[in-house]
Amino acid sequence: MLSIKNLQASVGDKAILKGINLEVKAGEVHAIMGPNGSGKSTLSNVLAGRENTTVTGGSVTYQGKDLLALAVEERAREGVFLAFQYPVEIPGVGNVYLLKAALNAQRKHRGLPELDAMDFLALVKDKMKLMEMNESMLYRAVNEGFSGGEKKRNEILQMVVLEPSLAILDETDSGLDIDALKVVSHGVNSLRSPERAMILVTHYQRLLDYIKPDFVHVLSDGRIQRSGGPELALELEREGYAWVGDAKNAGVVAP
Amino acid sequence: MNPFLAQCRASFEAQATQEGTVEGSQRQAEWTRFEALGWPTTRLEDWKYTALSGLEKLSLHHSIEPREAVKGAPRALLEGIPAPRLVFVDGMFQPDQSMIEGLPKGVHLRFWSELDARERERFTQKMAPARALTAFGALNGALFTEGIWITVDAGCALETPLHLVKVSLTGQRMSHGALLLESEENSELTLREHCLGSTDQPAHSNWVTAIELAPQARLTLVKVQQEGLLSYHTAALHGLQRAGSQLQVFAFALSGALGRNDITLRLIEPHAECVLKGMYRVADRALQDFHTTIEHDSPHCTSDECFKGVLEGSGKAVFNGRVRVALDAQKTSSRQSNHNLLLSDKAEVNTKPQLEIFADDVKCSHGTTVGQLDEEQWFYLRTRGIAADLARTLLIQAFTLEIAEAIPHVDVRAEVRRLLGGTVEENGHV
Ligand SMILES: Nc1ncnc2c1ncn2[C@@H]1O[C@H](COP(=O)(O)OP(=O)(O)OP(=O)(O)O)[C@@H](O)[C@H]1O
Ligand SMILES: [Mg+2]
Questions:
Q1: Which pTM does this prediction carry?
Q2: Which of A56, A125, B118, B416 lies at a C-alpha separation of 20 to 30 Å from B404?
Q3: For the ABC transporter domain, which residue ranges apply (chain A) (predicted)?
Q4: How far is it, in rounded angstroms, from Cα B102 to Cα A255?
């Protein structure tokens, strides 16, 4: 589904990603962990297509296509979804409007008929139940005045409505209370299927208690320093990232 | 004398001789004042950023008949505008296209052309403060061909908005009209003013509006300029508010080569409230200029002013917001803001708040911003599959929508929202 080869990227003059290699197959869930500032969000942003991050080398293939050649919105319509670490507030643009426009843009791209207002509302209300969200949120501006946790929940609502093939969740768990974490995990798990893949960026094991990853990677200093199974996350929880420097010297590479 | 002025003079001379003596001398006085003020150039502080060199070169015809039969405004243009409505084409009233039968008893409508000499004198007196605002006001006094005088009786609340439609149809023409609105005690009216350009040739519309609100009267004026791309729009509005009256003025300048609005609202008795909100959308090479003044002459009054602008290409905008709080206007509450969105490096805005506060027990605030489209928001929308163009449109709309959302009348609000949005009206669900 996704093949990242020696990906290098910089913001301004600063090199941030220094050769990322990652293979994600359909049906898999990959967790990416790593210290603050190691480049996790930068990687997520490059995959989503943020323009201020310049790709300086390497390649990304998504479903056989050159992902980096696609415009931001084309990637979205092709099924790539990024749940933001810091969801953006957009005063004046209605939440319900965005959901509908997003869903219909994607359907149109796939040659499906657009949903009318009735069908759309039925669908979105259903998904809101799943996310245990109050319907009044639909009629507010996108993320405007939402609490930190509400914003994260809103990201996952968008995700379950859009049903992406590749979901990238950038620290969706941070800022969530214990109940909200369960609800959000439930939403994410409802999308797990053999055709879909997910990349979870997180700092904490507790998310991975709810969403079991197939692989765990440690990103540090712009490279994936170590990869392993779910047990790697537990080890990190115990021991932190102090070892990363050694691993770097030992030249451990991702599978 | 430039071609524009030569035509103005010709029109003035034709009318000054045609009419009776009192009126002739009034026109003469206004013409003299116009000449004394001189043609506005960028050497004058008030016109520093607004060059009229394009208008100067135009030789525009002025019809001095108040009701000359013209072919009328295109039906499609008037289609969505319900009764009661008054339609002017190229400055001339069009009885056939207007619909005024349904006006309630308490609303009186009179036309300048039908007034007797004494009434004309009163009308002229009441228009004077509006005409005094600019040189174009003086020009209006010398040249105007028709005026409307609307009076709303005490206690009369008109739920349905009254529409005033001014169409520039023929091109190569100028029009000078006058509107006098008097609201008696505790009355209520919404006036929706449509300024529509239906020609791709240059034209000039120069109207003057005077408003007087008696105690507790409520009036909302919603003006939208959709002038032709080569057209000029100058307008002066003067509002006089007595105790406890509420005036809300919304001004949207959506198109035209050059627009200049001079708006002065005077709060002359306690507890009067005014809202002055506007939005300008300036295309490449166009210019919109708002010069506003709010005069707090009396204690316990409030004013709430906000203008927002969106500029493209080498579009230019001028916002000059003067707020004057007189010495004894204690407990004044006044807010002013001006926010601008520049969509290009070549766009330019000159914004100047001008606060003159002489009272000491007041709450006054003002703020100005000039910025670009928020990249983060744009990126976010696109990551949801929204096309780059639509995302941009949505954000521009979101920026300006706030102004439309403040319009009290639900139908007018919805209509203006559509004008600002076009394809994305559902977005109003906020
Ligand atoms: N616009 C920018 N300008 C300058 N530096 C930037 C910019 N964006 C990111 N960086 C830098 O790039 C590095 C990687 O940032 P990134 O946000 O990818 O880290 P992260 O791994 O997601 O961290 P966290 O766990 O704190 O979210 C950081 O050192 C950050 O300061
Ligand atoms: Mg991050």
A1: 0.86
A2: A125
A3: 2-246
A4: 80
